[in-house]
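Students often ask what a holo structure prediction actually looks like on paper. The answer is less mysterious than it sounds. You provide the chain, you provide the ligand, and the output is a string of discrete structure tokens encoding the 3D arrangement of the protein together with 2-phosphoglycolic acid.
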Amino acid sequence: MDGREMKNIWVIANWKSNKNIKEALEWLDVVGPKIPRKENLKVVVCPPFTDIEEVKKNVLVSNYPIMVGAQDLSPFESGPYTGEESARILAELVDLAVLGHSERRQNFGETDETVAKKTLEAQKQQIIPLVCVQDEKTPLPEGIKIVAYEPFFAIGSGHPDTPQNANEVALKLKERNDSLEILYGGSITSKNSSVFLKQDNLNGLLVGQASLDPEEFIKIIQTTPS
Ligand code: PGA
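The corresponding structure tokens follow.
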């Protein structure tokens, strides 16, 4: 087996502001039993905050090979920050946090500086920061290990970047830090996922809309290399 076959493949479901607890558990009942147990396949579901506890409990009880992630976390430690979920609070429940998603940058004024603070908070609590970048020039917070390349035009548009360009951007990011794992996100479906997964410099996918449908998400998982 060569090194390429053994690289980590991440498939991350970003539900955004979708699914209540009941819907989340229905999804898990369908998806959970169908995720293959492979050491290099890392499947993560990032539900809304209010679903996280129930999803986590169900994953543990059913022993599904799924990690639970948050879609964001606070740039501050616990304390007087109304409405914020600190990394310390989330650390009981999540393994990973998506940080700096472009929807947060566009709609909630998130800056590279805020993303760097959130990254630090995640690292202090052993939560893996998955930092979203819009191109190869986006500043990378110190110590990060996983990045998602998510060009603005591709998110929720039905128009993904080309796999070749995503691979090129991933290469440029790796030139900045060769230990990074790079995911691609933006209009991924089960029809285009396999071509992205075949790119040398990509380590998986961040999936929004298509992750909401459990059958479609399973199909995407099935396109990961065996
Ligand atoms: P999309 O979203 O798959 O719906 O384009 C991807 C993302 O924003 O993570």
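The pocket of 2-phosphoglycolic acid is lined by residues 14, 150, 155-156, 185-188, 206-210 (CB under 6 Å).
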